[in-house]
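[09:14] KT: can someone run the structure on this one? pasting the chain below
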Amino acid sequence: MLELKLLRSFVLLAEELHFGRAAERLHIVQPALTQQIQSLERQIGTQLLNRTRGRISLTDAGVLVLAEARKTLEQAARTETIGRLAGRGEVGRLEVGFVGSAGLSALMPAVLRDFRQAHPGVDLNLVEMAVGPQLAAIAAGDVDVGFIRLPPLSLPGGVAVLPLRPEGLVVALPAGHPLAQLPAVPVAGLAREPMVLHHRAAAAELRSLIDELCARHGFAPQVVQSVPQISLTIRLVAAGLGVSLMPETIASMAVEGVVYRPLADDDIHYTLALAHRAQDAAPAVRAFVALAGALAEP
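[09:31] RB: done, structure tokens below
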């Protein structure tokens, strides 16, 4: 394996075509430079310089080696720069998971915007995933950070969670529904209402929270349709298929024929949070987590 030091000395000598001047630029004595060039020629197995009457010139092999040496030194410099930047979290790639409702919050877009401005060399790859698969992917190292909802049904070992912003649940109602005339809807008022809710596979934590909420008020939700997507849930409510319970962030989605009302008599939280590997030392991950925490502060 050729040493970069030898290549660097050869390139400078090829530029100067004078041992004394090249040695001066390298801040070494001339005999040391002579030894380096001889060592390089031995390793390559061919003569790189013509030495005649005190003058030197490149052999045909020397011309070819010079071009490759310059490329090698440039690549080495790029590698060093990239390594230094990566060590500071300024370049690289982050796999960012998120649940659908997090993408509708004001916080997640703000975190992505500010992180990209502060770390333009870090590519953010966004992947929408349910909470459970997200946490498993983070634990396995396939996802770096993830916007999830608390409380999770389970938390894998080695995964830490940073609570960001608590949210309540709201009731989505068809605009002409009698409950839409109330400023806030009592939970018991939903006991006989047909409900359009997320699939358990897509939002197990939300469905569990809704089940617990309804059970505290003495009934089980009457689910007439399970839906994999937030947007379809709201459209089905607008069509009159039923009512729905969802994070209050969703109320920012104005859909004709749908109104949102807070719950009147239950203080329940479906908190937006950021999950990451607890011992992840990657500077970009640490910077992302710190930024999310700072932006979440009131």
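[09:33] KT: thanks! The chain has a mean pLDDT of 89.
[09:34] RB: yep, looked fine to me
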